[in-house]
Specification:
Layout: H1 5-14, H2 19-62, E1 66-67, E2 74-75, E3 80-82, E4 90-92, H3 93-105, H4 125-131, H5 134-151, E5 157-159, E6 166-168, E7 177-179, E8 188-190, H6 203-209, H7 214-226, E9 228-229, E10 236-237, E11 245-247, E12 256-258, H8 288-310, H9 316-319, H10 325-337
Helix pairs in contact: 1-2, 3-5, 7-8
Length: about 350
């Protein structure tokens, strides 16, 4: 039997009574369409790559290449974007996208010029369209929406635990569910445990029924020990390095608080006498790795004790959070490269603020 594409429809009609063979032929047709679409996409990408190579050779020959002021690589003008200042600063699309992704991670939405010259210009919508992918564009729009809601001073603002969508909600005692209205999310979640909704079951009942192990409680306690929240707007954050005087990056907030005790503060809150502080106050500088390790170990120990008191049938080894050898080796390599763990003898331990 000839299974060429132009014959498939006739064969399907002839085999109308044979459901199994009919289904097989439909799967064959679907597989062929998928393959053809994938091949067309690869061919389009190949042609685009060849055209871009030719464009770059032509730009080099004509001397029209432009330097990216972020990575300092040279690119043809069609792969560059610029800020909207009178004296424009040029960047490659890759650097512009990575900058946008960083802003998204910091709950920001305004994309400012990356120039080291102190330029405060932005990028026009036409320029943003050239480097933003759909995912990053949506994330920036959500950050802007949430910032506007917070600036409006809306009380009882609640957020979806699965995406940045936020809305005004009654107190959790009145409504335990959050119904996300973001088109690509639309999940209904429990506002108490931040999991998908399990009402009318309680969080504890749901944890037992869905097999959420007691070990997860320990893992969550360890994660919570790493994460701080802004004491003004509730935005979560983790410090990588620098001093313990932290400023919230959320638009419209800007709260300053101590990373150690989470109280709002200024420099006189810390132990640096040269900045108005006193000995014995919270440290201004310290090893964040050491602090995180100590706090995570303490949280694990306390959670272990609590769980074992509630579930004596488990041993400590049953509940210990397992870390693979590869993860341990990677952590050791990272620490070996970190000057704060391996300072030069007689030299300073370097922190970047």
């Amino acid at each position: 039997m000839d299974f060429r594409e132009e014959n498939i429809e006739a064969i399907l009609n002839a085999l109308a009574g044979d459901a199994e063979r009919n289904e097989t032929l439909r799967e064959l047709r679907a597989a062929r369409k998928f393959k053809a679409k994938a091949e067309a996409k690869r061919e389009a990408e190949r042609v685009a790559a060849l055209e871009e190579e030719e464009n770059e050779r032509r730009a080099q020959a004509e001397g029209t290449m432009k330097e990216c002021l972020c990575c300092f690589g040279d690119y043809p003008l069609n792969r560059m974007i610029h800020c909207d200042a009178d004296e424009m600063h040029w960047f490659c699309r890759g650097c512009a996208l990575r900058n946008a992704e960083t802003e998204v991670g910091q709950s920001k939405y305004e994309l400012s010029c990356m120039s080291m010259e102190g330029c405060d210009a932005r990028f026009s919508m036409s320029q943003r369209a050239q480097f933003l992918d759909e995912k990053t564009k949506i994330a920036l729009e959500r950050n802007e929406q949430e910032a506007n809601l917070r600036l409006a001073g809306i009380e009882n603002l609640a957020s979806c635990p699965f995406c940045p969508f936020a809305a005004e909600y009654p107190p959790v005692e009145v409504d335990r569910e959050f119904r996300c209205q973001a088109p690509d999310c639309e999940k209904v979640s429990c506002r108490l445990c931040n999991l998908e909704s399990h009402i009318p079951k309680s969080c504890e009942e749901n944890a037992k029924e869905t097999g959420l192990s007691v070990r997860r409680r320990i893992e969550e306690a360890m994660s919570a020990a790493l994460i701080r929240k802004c004491n003004k707007c509730g935005t979560p954050f983790i410090k990588e390095e620098g001093c313990n005087k932290m400023r919230c990056t959320l638009k419209g907030c800007g709260n300053v608080q101590c990373y150690v005790c989470s109280k709002s503060c200024d420099y006189d809150h810390f132990n640096d006498a040269s900045r108005g502080g006193k000995p014995g106050n919270c440290p201004l500088f310290e090893s964040v790795e050491t602090r995180h390790d100590d706090e995570v170990n303490k949280a694990e120990k306390e959670a272990l004790e609590q769980v074992r008191a509630e579930h004596p049938e488990y041993t400590e080894d049953d509940l210990k959070v397992k870390v693979s050898e590869e993860v341990k080796k990677d952590d050791e390599r990272r620490r070996a490269r970190d000057p704060r763990f391996n300072p030069v003898v007689g030299g300073p331990v370097i922190f970047r603020g």
